[in-house]
């Protein structure tokens, strides 16, 4: 007499129910996939939070979004940031900063450090590939944030051009 056995599959007494077996296997596979995905996401989050603690930066990795720093950095480059407050920032160093009210970080080089008597420090920055420094950022921000100002400025410039031609 030969004995046969099935490993891992229990057939119901009523006969072969392959769809029931498949449903059970699919649920197990689905649970496995969900658990695997959750482990990957939690591992990535732990690594990210660990980098935040190690670097002292809220955003330890940024992507370069423009060509303003070429040839030093190109669009799409990933930058690993640190924020050690003991080290003073000097002219010539590359910094990453955010303009108030904007979410996109800017990567530029410090060209001048302004230290005031009360201890306040301000930096003048410029992209290596830009013709002018970043003082013009404020005008761009005002024009983008306040459309009425933009139209008023365009009106004044248009009137100036018209009046200048007449003279």
TrEMBL record:
InterPro entries for the chain: LexA/Signal_pep-like_sf (IPR036286), Pept_S26A_signal_pept_1_CS (IPR019758), Pept_S26A_signal_pept_1_Ser-AS (IPR019756), Peptidase_S24_S26A/B/C (IPR015927), Peptidase_S26 (IPR019533), Peptidase_S26B (IPR001733)
Compartments where found: Endoplasmic reticulum membrane
Gene3D superfamilies for the chain: Umud Fragment, subunit A
Residue ranges constituting the Peptidase S24/S26A/S26B/S26C domain according to the UniProt record: 54-134
Transmembrane segments: 30-48
Membrane among keywords: yes
Subunit structure: Component of the signal peptidase complex paralog C (SPC-C) composed of a catalytic subunit SEC11C and three accessory subunits SPCS1, SPCS2 and SPCS3. Within the complex, interacts with SPCS2 and SPCS3. The complex induces a local thinning of the ER membrane which is used to measure the length of the signal peptide (SP) h-region of protein substrates. This ensures the selectivity of the complex towards h-regions shorter than 18-20 amino acids.
Protein name from the UniProt record: Signal peptidase complex catalytic subunit SEC11
